[in-house]
C-alpha cells in the first residue's frame, strides 16, 4: 500500500481504477453521475492509497488558488454554454474550478473583471470572444497575466494564446455541399463585418465558389450586422426580393439561418424545395426547427477543453509548438438542403 507521505495523484488513482480522470473527480467531489459499481471501485482505491482531493493545500504549496476565471459575454445562448461545459469538465479533471464572469459585451466591464481576476483571485483566465483589442491583450501578457482567448473576436498577434474553430474550411464545406446539389446562385448572410469569424467564413465562401468557377454577385452577400434571428429575417427578405433571388442561402450562424427560413415561409416558399438553407454552429435549435437545419458543427465543448489544456500548460511554464489551435469543423447534413427546383 502506498503511504500518505508519498501522496498519489488523481491520474494514478484513475489508472489503478481503469477509469478516466473525470470519473475519479466526479466520485471524490460527490457527484451522482457515476454508476454505483464504479463509485465503489474508485472509493476503495482512494481509501487504500490515502488520496485526498486537497485543492487548498496543493494550491498554497504551488502558490495557486485552484480557480480559473472564465469571462463570457453571455451565459444562456447555446454557443457559450457549449464552451463553458467543455471548460468546466476539463477543469474538474485537474481538480480545479471555474469562476464565471458574464461581461454582456461591455468593454469597460470586461477590463475591470480581468483586472480583478488577475490579481490573486484566480490562477488564470479564459476569455471568450473578448472585447479587448490585440494591443490591450498584449499589455496583459506583458504584465505577467496568464490567459487563453477562446474564439477571438478581433485578429490577434502571434504571442497571444488562443483556440478557435476552422471557420474558413467550415464555410467551404457548406458552399461545396450546395454546389454539389446543383446550386449556382448561392447567397451569404454574414455576421458583424469586423469579427474574425465573419471574415474567415466569408473567405471560405468566396474560395469555394471560385474553385467552381463562380464569381459571387455582390448583391448576394448581405451583411446582417449581428448574429440574431431578426437580423437573419431582414437579410433574407432583401435577398428574396431580388429580381433573380438565390436558390440557396449560407447563413453565418444558426440564428441567421432560422431567420432565413422564417423569411422564406412568410413568402410562401418551402424549404428546401424552393430554397436551401445552411447554417453554422450546430446548436440545439438546429434540430428543433422544421425542417432540421443543415449546418456546420463547431466543436464548442472541445474548444473549451483545449483552452483549459493550453492554460494549464502556460501555468506550468511548459513549451508550446504553437500558441494558436484551430479545431476542425464538420458539415452536418439534415433536411434544409436539396437540389434547386428545375
Q: Quick gist of this model?
A:
With 342 residues, the chain is of the alpha/beta class.
- Give, in spatial order, the strands making up the sheet with the most strands: 2-1-3-4-5-11
- Figure out the total of helices: 13
CATH topology of the largest domain: Rossmann fold
Q: What is the rounded Rg?
A: 23 Å
Q: Mean pLDDT, nearest integer?
A: 88
CATH architecture of the largest domain: 3-Layer(aba) Sandwich
CATH superfamily of the largest domain: Response regulator
- What is the succession of H and E elements? HHHHEHEHEHEEHEHEHEHEHEHEE
Basic shape: globular
- Report the sheet-strand fraction: 15-25%
Folded structure, characterized:
- With 342 residues, the protein is of the alpha/beta class.
- The chain folds into three domains: 4-53, 434 Repressor (Amino-terminal Domain) (Orthogonal Bundle), CATH 1.10.260.40; 65-165 and 300-328, Rossmann fold (3-Layer(aba) Sandwich); 167-298, Rossmann fold, CATH 3.40.50.2300.
- It is 45% helix and 16% strand.
- The chain is built from 13 helices and twelve strands.
- The chain has helices at 10-17, 21-28, 36-49, 55-62, 78-93, 107-121, 134-142, 167-181, 196-211, 229-240, 254-266, 285-288, 300-315, and strands at 67-72, 97-102, 124-128, 147-150, 162-165, 186-190, 221-223, 248-251, 276-281, 294-297, 324-327, 330-332.
- It has a six-stranded parallel β-sheet, sandwiched between helices. A six-stranded mixed β-sheet has the order 7-6-8-9-10-12, with helices on both faces.
- Strand 1, helix 5 (78-93) and strand 2 (97-102) form a beta-alpha-beta unit.
- Helix 1 crosses helix 2, helix 1 packs across helix 3 and helix 8 (167-181) runs parallel beside helix 9.
- The longest helix has 16 residues, at 78-93.
- The protein is globular and about 75 Å long.
- The termini are far apart.
- Mean pLDDT is 88; it is low at 1-6 and 55-61.
